[in-house]
Design brief:
two-stranded antiparallel ribbon; 6% strand; 727 residues; Na/ntran_symport; symporter activity; glycoprotein; mainly alpha; transmembrane helix
């Protein structure tokens, strides 16, 4: 030990030793603690293990480029919901007026919480389990809950990718198989399939040919082998992408993230050239301002913002954990958030252009069918020819002519009008038919594409886009499972990923039985909404109120090189937690007011019918919610009462290349060694608080603390204030 060290000086002094661990470490030359007397863990030195730990900390995977990372985050956040959920909500909740609450909530909830997840992942460089164990060990269950929710969502999300794969391969034929109803030959007679005739060709193909759906969730009906093969294909693709790691999956993102934009732009150009497309777009942007005062609109906008960015799943944290610590994650959060918003608007334009075209087609069909009824009534003298306006030409009847004729007949035949069975055939009624989810993608959109010139080409492009959107989100969802588990338990990535995919496929067989679509609806509606809301509230509380907003802002200041806006201080500490609590309360009330149910397809009626879940299905539903949130109280209780060790009193110090590498993920707040600071911000698997104190909004620049350079890289160690002083 050097003669001029503080320890040597104290040996020859009668003064009482008051130096802390931080003071001692700050003035000593770097040594290898495992190979010296400074072994604070009491472990025997294992050279091979030490080398492996060094390699693990030095060789954490990283993105090949910033563009690859941004595309991965975009691919994860921009998913199927942008294409088939956002347009539905826009149509349902006031058209253009809905964009106002959505944008407001994106700014005060979405952006701050997205920035928070990016920042903690990049700073701590661990998956969701490691991140929340570091920030607050008692809330370490947040990471496990995120993994469970990711698993539940991945189970049914990959089924939707399987459906898209099925339709993709069915698109390579002309005419498209869902363009006409099948003909059944009965001896010398040929009749149209009754179920198809009562509904439509696309509806029949979806429910009968693709899903082979049963009449209720209680009628299993066995496995649908076509969808089982498609599900196996989907899990194989996802598994291979995840096994290859972020370098390979990042390269996949170049295609899977950009291709949907190419398709959406192509559809937009083609859609705008379709007859009636402008009607659809005008319908979308015509604001219903009274809707903005409806609390339900704000609740649905908040929920959409919440899920659009993938908050709480752990995928955002996992992706950002592979970044360098000096990466500007604030820019990333802003960029990805608004790209997500503009993607939703672009998809809505495309959807409404196509639905405007479809509405005109259906309206013309309605006019033709009802005109034939009127001609029949005229020929049988049920109606008088005097009721028909003189300028009406039945061979070239327009929607305007029919509307005028309809009004005259309704006025004259007021007493017996209902018996005639005539429809008004209003374009507005067709445009107001709300379609979302699978109904939009596999029924409404497929029906519109049958009227496109070169319809197989557009069908191939559309379903390839859905596959890419789904894969981008699934890769992020799987990263939310694999990254934290591998970081925490050090399992082999290949073995764990393969095992996870096999288990998910086997459990996912419930979604490819004949009643599988009803289970998809159940998981989509209830497996994630409430648990994720709880997870994100606790994430916000853990950072803002337990770890400390000022302390967190201080670390961001050091990491980013600039102080984040005061806006984030107040949104993290007050606004976002309050808004999320209101959203959670509203979700619970909604669940209690509206008993859970699903839309069943009744074969005999060829129509949908709302049914309530049976008792056993309700039990599954409740178990999903409980299981997803169970890690939160379990981990809290185990660590609060010290039933399991969280490493709170252990300090593991490693000297390496002149830097101190320290695992402080589970130290108690009153342990002064937790606050040993480092000036070297990057390349460490577990971060250390910085040497500048952020004094909260409205204060001057952070206070610089003196340092004593040591070792090859000149890193010093400093003592920070305790968290109690910052809360």
């Amino acid at each position: 030990m050097p003669k001029n060290s503080k320890v040597t000086q104290r040996e020859h002094s009668s003064e009482h030793v008051t130096e802390s661990v931080a003071d001692l470490l700050a003035h000593e030359e770097p040594v290898d603690y495992k190979r010296s007397v400074l072994n604070v863990t009491g472990e025997a030195w294992d050279k091979q293990k030490d080398v492996e730990e060094d390699l693990d900390s030095e060789k954490r995977p990283a993105w090949n480029s910033k563009l690859q990372y941004i595309l991965a985050q975009i691919g994860y956040s921009v998913g199927l919901g942008n294409v088939w959920r956002f347009p539905y909500l826009c149509q349902k909740n006031g058209g253009g007026a809905y964009l106002v609450p959505y944008l407001v909530l994106l700014i005060i909830i979405g952006l701050p919480l997205f920035f928070l997840e990016l920042a903690v992942g990049q700073r701590i460089r661990r998956g969701s389990i490691g991140v929340w164990n570091y920030i607050c060990p008692r809330l370490g269950g947040i990471g496990y809950a995120s993994c469970l929710v990711c698993f539940f969502v991945g189970l049914y999300y990959n089924v939707i990718i399987g459906w898209s794969i099925f339709y993709f391969f069915k698109s390579f034929q002309y005419p498209l198989p869902w363009s006409e109803c099948p003909i059944i030959k009965n001896g010398t007679m040929a009749v149209v399939e009754a179920e198809c005739e009562k509904s439509s060709a696309t509806t029949y193909f979806w429910y009968r040919e693709a899903l082979e759906i049963s009449n209720s969730i209680s009628e299993s009906g066995g496995l649908n082998w076509k969808m089982t093969l498609c599900l196996l294909t989907a899990w194989s693709i996802v598994g291979l992408a995840v096994i290859k790691g972020i370098q390979s999956s990042g390269k996949v993102m170049y295609f899977s993230s950009l291709f949907p934009y190419v398709v959406l732009l192509c559809f937009l150009v083609r859609g705008l050239l379709l007859r009636g497309a402008i009607d659809g777009i005008l319908h979308m942007f015509t604001p219903k301002l009274d809707k903005m005062l409806d609390p339900q609109v704000w609740r649905e906008a908040a929920t959409q913002v919440f899920f659009a960015l993938g908050l709480g799943f752990g995928g955002v944290i996992a992706f950002s954990s592979y970044n360098k610590q000096d990466n500007n994650c604030h820019f990333d959060a802003t960029l990805v958030s608004f790209i997500n918003f503009f993607t939703s608007v672009l998809a809505t334009l495309v959807v409404f252009a196509v639905l405007g075209f479809k509405a005109n087609i259906m309206n013309e069909k309605c006019v033709v069918e009802n005109t034939e009824k009127i001609l029949g009534y005229l020929n049988t003298h049920v109606l008088s020819h005097d009721l028909i306006p003189p300028h009406v030409n039945f061979s070239h009847l327009t929607a305007k002519d029919y509307s005028e004729m309809y009004q005259v007949i309704m006025t004259v035949k007021e007493d017996h009008f209902k018996e005639l069975g005539l429809d008004p055939c209003l374009l507005e009624d067709e445009l107001n038919k709300s379609v979302q989810g699978t109904g939009l993608a596999f029924i409404a959109f497929t029906e519109a594409m049958t009227h496109f010139p070169a319809s197989p080409f557009w069908s191939v492009m559309f379903f390839l886009m859905l596959i890419n959107l789904g894969l981008g989100s699934m890769i992020g969802t799987m990263a939310g499972i694999t990254t934290p588990i591998i970081d925490t338990f050090k399992v082999r990535k290949e073995v764990f990923t393969v095992g996870c995919c096999i288990i998910a496929f086997l459990i996912g067989l419930i979604f490819v039985q004949h009643s599988g679509n009803y289970f998809v609806t159940m998981f989509d509606d209830y497996s994630a909404t409430l648990p994720l809301t709880v997870v994100v509230i606790l994430e916000n509380i853990a950072v803002a109120w337990i770890y400390g907003t000022k302390k967190f802002m201080q670390e961001l200041t050091e990491m980013l090189g600039f102080r984040p806006y005061i806006f984030y201080f107040y949104t993290w500490k007050y606004i976002s937690p309050l808004c999320m609590a209101v959203l959670m309360t509203a979700s619970i009330i909604q669940l209690g007011v509206n008993p859970p149910g699903y839309s069943a397809w009744i074969r005999e009626e060829a129509a949908e019918k709302f049914l309530y879940y049976p008792t056993w299905a309700m039990a599954i539903l409740i178990c999903l919610i409980i299981l997803a949130t169970l890690p939160l109280p379990v981990v809290f209780i185990l660590r609060q009462f010290h039933l399991v060790s969280d490493g709170s009193n252990a300090l593991s110090v490693t000297y390496k290349k002149g830097r101190m590498m320290k695992d402080i993920s589970n130290l108690e707040d009153n342990d002064e060694t937790r606050f040993i600071l480092s000036k070297v911000p990057s390349e460490t698997p577990s971060p250390m608080p910085t040497h500048r104190s952020y004094l909260g909004p409205g204060n001057a620049s952070p206070m610089e603390m003196s340092s004593a350079p040591n070792g090859r890289y000149g890193s010093g160690y400093h003592l920070a204030s305790t968290p109690e002083s910052e809360l």
